[in-house]
């Protein structure tokens, strides 16, 4: 009898504890989710020596915002940076609306450069990061997870000259 | 009076017996399920309020709630002759322990493996098997959709764009597509994004069909593949028409992208899946599940 009561008690403790952990980790603000994924990467780039010239929406909602930027090391070229935080759905939109002949089009994810959207790495990274956040106290918001689509125009060649990992 | 007391005693005994046998199954499945669902439900309720959050199903499709209800009803109905074995208890505890990890994906995966295991272990009881199979499919659906829409989003959205552009080419010469973008007029184009993909609607319709067919123990015939294919084609066609109308004109876009248009599509999806399930149930050759 005592064994059964103890088991039931432990079950309920475990049950509520596991639910509590998940509830406190829920980011409830949809606006903050969008903001974290659209403005936060740009803020990091501004700290990393970039300056923002302009920004505009690529669709009729705020899910795809592209920022026209310049790096302090090279003023001749332009760079369009677009955070993609769901999947590769925005790649064709960028190819059709921004990319012109001669442009360098690449993707940045966790400090590494990819020529095509790193779908599998992004999916795996997102799930690993969700779990990792519980164990260490990171400064970045829980839902800020994105791939930066970069369209580079001009002679700067930032793709090869800049240390993206530091940014 | 004596008979009445005996009846009550019988019912209490019956409930105790049922609970003793099934408490492990129901507890373990509920544990995994609630851990998987708690985060999106909390998010929905705290974002749009308690009333709207609860009336919208906590951000979870009503088809999933319905399938869960049917699945658990079947497990409650199931009769288990022998006690839950030590191995089964260990497996239940193991999967419950895994659900402590703060990832909905892991909770869905553990629910999937747990239900698949219990479905196999209780394969001689039609109710248990059907109930656990329904829960297995529910648990498989969400991680699978997330994985496919993350990793294969480009080809999946391109397929939609291909069908939309080809459908529109019957009405206009200027219809074309590139990736997930459909062009109809010079100044107007439609980008098909993840939320509008046919893949998600198709998976919901198939889940509803599977739930209705499985609850009637009509699964097991390979002819059912044909019914799945027909249902998928109908859903694909319906979504193609919706996307084509959205690509045709801005006013159509606003209507079909809004709440009314979305509800209309969901009603068609619901009706088609129910009709197909009724057809499958009527045309069964033999009851096997």
Largest sheet of chain B: 3 strands, antiparallel
**Overall pLDDT level of chain B:** 82
Tally of extended strands of chain B? Answer: 3
Q: Which quaternary structure do these chains form?
A: heterodimer
Overall 3D shape of chain A = elongated
* Helical percentage of chain B: over 70%
Element-by-element helix/strand order of chain A = HHHEEEHEEHEH
Structural account:
The complex is a heterodimer of chains A (167) and B (289). By secondary structure, chain A is of the alpha+beta class. Chain A is 41% helix and 25% strand. Chain A has helices spanning 2-24, 30-38, 40-47, 91-97, 119-135, 158-161; strands at residues 50-57, 65-71, 74-84, 104-109, 112-114, 147-153. In chain A, strands 1-2-3-6-4-5 form a six-stranded antiparallel β-sheet, covered by helices on one side. The longest helix of chain A has 23 residues, at 2-24. The model of chain A has no long low-confidence stretch (mean pLDDT 79). Chain B has 289 residues and is mainly α. Chain B has helices at 2-48, 50-55, 62-77, 86-98, 104-121, 126-151, 153-168, 198-215, 224-248, 250-257, 259-282; strands at 176-178, 181-185, 188-191. Chain B has a three-stranded antiparallel β-sheet with strand order 1-2-3, with helices on one face. In chain B, a hairpin with a 2-residue loop joins strand 2 and strand 3 (188-191). In chain B, helix 1 (2-48) packs parallel to helix 4, helix 4 packs antiparallel against helix 5 and helix 9 packs antiparallel against helix 11. Chain B is globular and about 70 Å long. The mean pLDDT of chain B is 82. The A-B interface holds A 11, 14-15, 17-19, 21-23, 25-30, 59, 63, 86-89, 91-93, 95-96, 117, 119-120, 122-123, 126-127, 130-131, 133-134 and B 27, 31, 34-35, 38-39, 42-43, 46-47, 96, 99-106, 146-147, 149-154, 157, 178-181, 191, 193-194.
